[in-house]
Amino acid sequence: MNLLHLKKKVVQIQMKRIESSQNxxxxxxxxxxxxxxxxxxxxxxxxxxxxxxxxxxxxxSWLLTLxxxxxxxxxxxxxxxxxxxxxxxxxxxxxxxxxxxxxxIYAHCIQPKSTxxxxxxxxxxxxxxxxxxxxxxxxxxxxxDAAGLDAVILGKGSADAYNPKTVRSGQGxxxxxxxxxxxxxxxxxxxxxxxxxxxxxxLDDSVSYNHVEPQSQFALxxxxxxxxxxxxxxxxxxxxxKIPLLGQAESLNVAVATGILLYTLVHTENES
Length: 272
Known about the structure:
The chain is of the alpha/beta class. The protein contains 10 helices and 14 strands.
């Protein structure tokens, strides 16, 4: 049992301890870090590090277990009432760590889900078509969150949204903005049916991004790092955009391009 000072009051916290790496729960955590199929099947994932754990704690309904390496000091301002906590050995902490120099604190979380009713109200969305690098996908999720979008939809061939590298690149945005996998062609037609303009990216039959006015409603589709947007999606967009290259670089990173286009399209009338 640990005693933590929280907001000038002492709270007793029951903390279970696990010492064996053969423990079934430890094996499950390891699979959440390394196996996409297990993340998909369970609808769960693991986050690592103080910042991401703190983001998870903002809504305890997402948090299944707070995992703490032995000897770790938990920030005194964290509200840990009603939070299930487990202390693990140094060896176990190393086994479930995704980073080389782990901070020794983890959260076992439920993948946040959106309801069909919530999805019907989405009017500003980023769609990702077969972007394969987890770091890129995570940065794109973070950028969509920063730009105030309603959701991110991942199409076939994209990196797993809950891959540890994706989560780390997202820097907590996984807890701020709905993320789901879906058929981008179907979603594209859904948005067009609502009168929401859909923008793609292409070097051909496209207009420069700085010729487009901000939109109160839009969907932006970003394509694969090497091959770009798939032809079957490209022909369904309302307009395709390009970002002129003024120097000698052959291309822009897809996450950087996403940031430029989102902040071109997003309506910032209410910015503060």
